[in-house]
Design goal:
mainly alpha; globular; 4 helices
């Protein structure tokens, strides 16, 4: 029986690939947002994505985004572990902490 709090190998590999992609593409935020949506149910993976978002915000010297990511780094793990996360949320500071959104169709099969 699989652990519902632990991502399967396909999800882990997909998120890792998207995080690598975020370092290589021009629109890094889009790749990070996609990784965020898929990682939300998993505490460790979700937190790892927010740390990548924080690093990117710091590189861009985006103070508002960096502060928003610090808050999200703190709440991401516990929220995921408790099953309380806003499905489809992009993970960005421009979106409210509890705001939900539709999961993009191409990501739906990866999101439980």
């Amino acid at each position: 029986m699989s652990d519902p709090n632990r991502p399967d190998s396909e999800v882990r590999a997909w998120v890792r690939a998207e995080l690598r992609n975020a370092r290589a593409v021009e629109n890094r935020w889009q790749a990070l947002e996609r990784a965020h949506i898929v990682s939300q149910p998993y505490a460790v993976l979700h937190t790892r994505v927010h740390l990548a978002m924080l690093r990117h915000a710091l590189r861009e010297r985006d103070v508002r985004e960096a502060v928003g990511q610090v808050v999200r780094v703190v709440v991401a793990g516990p929220g995921s572990a408790a099953g309380r996360y806003p499905r489809g949320n992009s993970g960005r500071a421009t979106m409210g902490l509890t705001e939900t959104a539709d999961v993009p169709q191409e990501l739906a099969r990866l999101v439980r």
